[in-house]
Amino acid sequence: MTSVLDYLLVAAISVLKMSGAFFKTPQQCRRWNEFADKHKEAMDAVIGDQKDWYISIDELFTHPTYQGRGYASALVNTVVQMADDLHRPTWLISSTPENAVFYHTFGFDTVLEIELGEGDPDWKSSPLVVPVMVRQRKERIDEKYRF
Ligand SMILES: CC(C)(COP(=O)(O)OP(=O)(O)OC[C@H]1O[C@@H](n2cnc3c(N)ncnc32)[C@H](O)[C@@H]1OP(=O)(O)O)[C@@H](O)C(=O)NCCC(=O)NCCS
After folding, report:
1. What domains can be seen in the chain, in order of their start residue?
2. Which ranges of the chain would DSSP assign to H, the alpha helix?
3. What is the dihedral of CA 128, 105, 92, 73, to 10 degrees?
4. Is the pLDDT of residue 140 over 90?
5. Ligand 1 pocket: which of 73, 93, 132 to mutate (most atoms within 8 A of CB)
6. Cα 67 to Cα 50: distance, rounded to the nearest angstrom
7. Each residue's pLDDT tens digit, 8-35
8. Which domain of life is it from (predicted)?
9. Counting atoms of ligand 1 from 1, which one is nearest the CA of 68?
10. Within 48-145, where are the H helices?
């Protein structure tokens, strides 16, 4: 059940996201818009009209001081177990191909790669490659062998 605290948290996050737009340089705004457009295109291509059916993992970060202690794994495991219990697939956009290795261990596969920056005259490096990953719901062994 959604509590008042949940609503307040969502409202606070929305305000923070909106206020972020005021502090962006024009280039950052362009890059953000490019990401938002391609994120939407990827979502349409990969999960189409099943947006409400797929569970998504967004913005997973562990503070550098605490990385490597299993915190992100604990969170991802909780989500994928919940997805399996609900018989639903999960999807995410990994921020880098390197992180895709982390998500592979939980059964996510890369189904599409978004390239960012290739049309931006101010972006001097190679385009950033952002994998779009999907994990199909896994049948548990106790379900498979239930008679
Ligand atoms: C990716 C991230 C969330 C992992 O957080 P974490 O709490 O350190 O993860 P865990 O401690 O649960 O790591 C579990 C395992 O994955 C490995 N792993 C973690 N990040 C990895 C990466 N980027 N590539 C390959 N392996 C990785 C760890 O080495 C560990 O392996 P081990 O169990 O054999 O020691 C963290 O590195 C991070 O915040 N990165 C920057 C932000 C980011 O890229 N977020 C992802 C957005 S899609």
Report:
1. 25-144 (3.40.630.30)
2. 4-22, 26-47, 71-85, 97-104, 141-144
3. -110
4. no
5. 73
6. 33
7. 888 888 888 777 666 778 888 888 889 9
8. Eukaryota
9. 11
10. 71-85, 97-104, 141-144
Cα 117 to middle of ligand 1, angstroms = 25
Residue with tokens 């990953």: 133
Residue with tokens 């990385």: 67
Q: Which of 102, 128, 129, 135 to mutate to test the pocket of ligand 1 (most atoms within 8 A of CB)?
A: 102
Instruction: Please give the structure tokens belonging to residue 67.
Output: 């990385």
Per mean pLDDT, which range of 44-48, 59-63, 121-125, 128-132 is the poorest?
Answer: 121-125
Residue ranges lining ligand 1, Cβ < 6 Å: 60-62, 67-73, 94-95, 98-99, 101-102
Q: Determine the length of the chain.
A: 147
pLDDT in tens, 71-128: 999 999 999 999 999 999 999 999 889 899 999 999 999 999 999 988 788 888 899 9
